[in-house]
Each structure stands twice: as structure tokens, then as C-alpha cells.
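Researcher: Can you fold this with flavin mononucleotide in place?
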Amino acid sequence: MRTIFDPAELPPLRMYQVLTASVVPRPIAWVSTLSQDGVANLAPYSFFSVSSVNPPVVQFTSVTRKDSLHNIEATGEFVINLATEPLMAVINSSSAAFDRDVDEFAELGIETELSEQVRPVRVAGSPVAIECTLKQVVPVGDSFVVMGDVVTVAVRPEAVADDGLPDFTKLAPLSRLGRNEWGLPPHVVTLDRPQ
Ligand SMILES: Cc1cc2nc3c(=O)[nH]c(=O)nc-3n(C[C@H](O)[C@H](O)[C@H](O)COP(=O)(O)O)c2cc1C
């Protein structure tokens, strides 16, 4: 017998626990933004995916209104830094509820570098940075799906494979699972698609 979870009968917190333990593993967007006053902000978001490739659009979801969303609405820009294994502890630290006037890069000692096309800085130690301008915010209940037009993808040289693309093994991406679980980089197998 399967265990049945009926959203009509469950409180929202339980449904959150069921969905986040079921839709796994989720990659983690480490989102950097700037406030209207120029204060840098950084926070992890695992409700993160590609929305479309033509045009290139990515998305993450702010569950309730958080500072990242606030900043993106104010400035129209953000950077998604890929969350990777060596950065796990500091990524977790950046999920704390800092006051809006706290520069989280400075507070947590995270090295920055200038972005190519947007004002929010990149995390220097993250191998992939996806620079975005705000496309649209779609409200869904108590959440907000933030879609960004991708204006640049910047990959560190050591993370590029011989074919010119990011190399999964060198990226060592983290994932978010259910509860307080994190996923470390999994094994990779290659399988051609059927004709
Ligand atoms: C690994 C991880 C993934 C997270 N994913 C999300 C998410 O997808 N959506 C969300 O609203 N909060 C998520 N959080 C919680 C936010 O990071 C946290 O609320 C943070 O303080 C928001 O920062 P901000 O207010 O500066 O944007 C996640 C936390 C962790 C540790």
C-alpha cells in the first residue's frame, strides 16, 4: 500500500515536507543581489530550474517575500552562482535571516568578483555564474517564481571540459534533498538517447 498525501487534508508545512522530500535532488541557486541602497545580499534557493532555452530563462522561487526578491524587484538584476561542495558550509550560513542592511559577502568573508553585465557581484569561488535581468515575477499562493533572462553565463576555466562545456565532475554541484539533508555530487553515467 502506498502512503497517500492529500493536499486537501494536510497543513501546508506537511505538504512542504512531502514535496521537498519527494522532488529530489534539487540543484541550489546561490542568488546574489544588490539592494536599492547598494547592499549586497546572498542566499541559497533550491526551487531552481531552467524555464526555457530559447530565449534563455532561469527561475527560482521565493517562498514568501524574502530580501532577494525585494532586491530583484528594486534593481531588476541578479546572479545565480552554482552551489558546490567546497562551499557547503558558507552556503548554509548565508541562509540565515540577516538584516537587510548587512552585506552578507562581507559578513561571511566570501570573495567576490565583478559580473560581466549586471551590478550584483559574483561569488569568486563558484565555478558557474548565471547573470540575469528580471523577466517576470509570477505570484503563486504565498510564493513568487522569479524568472530571469540570462544575459551571461560565466564559467571558471578549471571547470570547463575539453568539449568547451561545464564539466560535472569539476563543478561538484550540491543539491538539496528533504528535511535538512544535502546531496553530494552523484556518480555520472553516459547514455545516448534513442534515435
Ligand atoms: C539549501 C537551501 C535551499 C533553500 N531553498 C529555498 C527556496 O527554494 N526558496 C526559499 O524561499 N527559501 C529557500 N531557502 C531558505 C532561504 O535561503 C532563507 O530564507 C534566506 O534567509 C533567504 O535570504 P534572503 O531573505 O536574503 O533572500 C533555502 C535554504 C537552504 C539552506
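Model: Folded with flavin mononucleotide in place. The first helix runs from residue 12 to 22.
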